[in-house]
Design brief:
Helix content: over 70%
Strand content: under 5%
Shape: flat
Structural class: mainly alpha
Number of strands: 0
Number of helices: 10
Order of helices and strands: HHHHHHHHHH
Length: 286
């Protein structure tokens, strides 16, 4: 019995499978060794002593972390909504047939996309004397909105040209073609890139602590710099990091849920066609 193969992939034989198994075992041993070495260093430097973990038992510390987490989610919520809105406006401008709108949107997108986020946040906070939350949200919205504008423009441009031409042939106006034909198809393709950029915006909210915005990382910094608890920097990182990772995973799960719901939407579901019935025969036909 011969093993199945294709032009792109050959089923590995017994020797190759054994070699892959050895590679997997060796990689596992190396990873476990690195994890063990890190744990040894943490125990050796006293990172798991009761003194460093005591702060998390106090209600005041817990409220500080919860307040910081709430501020982080607030900044992310504002920044994500404004980024999506700004990205849509700039993408429409870049796709416009009017040269003035197209070139203006192009300049704005390239400028804000090339400008470091921290520089924009500091400029808005220091030069324009804006409060920490609006300064952080504005900086995140300008940068992520310009990136999302390119995502939207590329996604719409990736829709098959025949879709656009068929819609125009049916008598649709450009706005109708964009709203009912191009955007619904492009969103499904753009969704992973959109969620990835929103994850970037979520992580960049941590820059707020540099302008004294009391977000999650700022709360962790206050706890980690406390001398009364022997500077519990590593314990704070071990508490805060999984929460950030969990929020990013929730965003990815939400994107998967939206994509699945979109696939099962009546607008995208295939229409059942009734089976053909025998037609009436013409005179003289049998």
């Amino acid at each position: 019995m011969t093993t199945a193969s294709t032009a792109l992939y050959d089923i590995p034989g017994p020797r190759t499978r054994r070699r892959h198994l050895l590679y997997g075992l060796a990689s596992t041993v190396v990873i476990l060794g690195i994890v063990g070495w890190v744990l040894y260093l943490l125990f050796d430097t006293g990172q798991f002593t009761a003194t460093k973990w005591t702060p998390f038992e106090y209600k005041g510390i817990q409220e500080l972390l919860l307040r910081g987490l709430g501020n982080t989610l607030k900044a992310f919520g504002y920044a994500s909504v404004l980024s999506l809105a700004l990205g849509a406006v700039l993408a429409i401008g870049r796709l416009s047939e009017h040269r003035v709108f197209r070139w203006t949107s192009t300049v704005l997108v390239e400028f804000f996309r090339a400008m470091p986020v921290l520089v924009m946040i500091f400029f808005i906070f220091v030069a324009l004397k804006v409060q920490p939350l609006p300064a952080l949200v504005a900086g995140l919205a300008l940068y992520n909105g310009s990136v999302l504008a390119e995502v939207f423009r590329t996604g719409i441009g990736a829709v098959a040209r025949g879709q656009r031409e068929a819609a125009y042939a049916l008598g649709m106006r450009k706005t109708q073609v964009m709203t009912y034909v191009l955007v619904p198809q492009a969103v499904r393709a753009m969704l992973p890139a959109i969620i990835s950029q929103l994850v970037v915006a979520l992580k960049d909210t941590s820059l707020g602590y540099l302008i004294t915005y009391e977000e999650f990382l700022h709360a962790g910094k206050l706890i980690a710099s406390n001398l009364d608890y022997d500077l519990p920097f590593i314990p704070v990182v071990m508490v805060i990091s999984p929460i950030y990772i969990g929020m990013c995973i929730l965003l990815s799960w939400f994107a998967t849920w939206v994509a699945r719901r979109e696939r099962h939407s009546p607008k995208t579901r295939a229409v059942d066609v009734a089976p053909a019935e025998p037609a009436t025969l013409l005179p003289g036909r049998e």
